[in-house]
Amino acid sequence: MHEAWLRLSRAGERERPQAQVLALAARVVREVLVDHARRKRSQKRGGDWGRVTLGVAEGLSAGGGPDALDLLALDEALTGLAASHPRAARVVELRYFSGLSVDETAGALDIAPATVDVDWRFARAWLSRALQGHA
């Protein structure tokens, strides 16, 4: 997390409104975790990849439980989701990597909570399908 704060402070993000900072923080946390997983994978040559549980993103994994998920596979799937559905990918970043609620996510993206719900359900289904081969 220190690395995330350093990246944020270097970019002068303290001057932005809180919603924008939270949105940027989600992206930075994702980048830091993925960078760490990549370093660890290269050190172990494919061994103990960065695994996380999806407790925050309940139902995101194919089994619907707190299954471990390969963080690099999630990042790759999120990149694919962002190519066709960028707002849904941002919802996942905010909900999963920042732990924001539906209302907080709606505020950060300046959309209705109902829209966040729709995007969240869609993104979970999309990512679940994309990640089935990685489980």
- Number of extended strands: 2
Compute the gyration radius: what is it?
15 Å
Q: Give the H and E element order.
A: HHEEHHHH
Give the integer mean of the pLDDT values: 75
* Main beta-sheet strand count, sense and barrel state: 2 strands, antiparallel
The helix count comes to 6
Strand fraction equals under 5%
Structure notes:
The chain has a two-stranded antiparallel ribbon. It has one domain (2-134). The model is unreliable at 53-59 and 61-68 (pLDDT under 50). The chain is mainly α and 135 residues long. The protein contains 6 helices and 2 strands.
Question: In a few lines, what is going on in this structure?
Answer:
The protein has 135 residues and is mainly alpha-helical.
Write the topology of this structure:
Layout: H1 2-10, H2 18-44, E1 51-53, E2 68-70, H3 71-84, H4 86-97, H5 102-109, H6 113-131
Antiparallel strand pairs: 1-2
Helix pairs in contact: 1-2, 2-4, 2-5, 3-4, 3-6, 4-5, 4-6, 5-6
Name a few traits of the molecule.
two-stranded antiparallel sheet; 135 residues; 6 helices; 66% helix
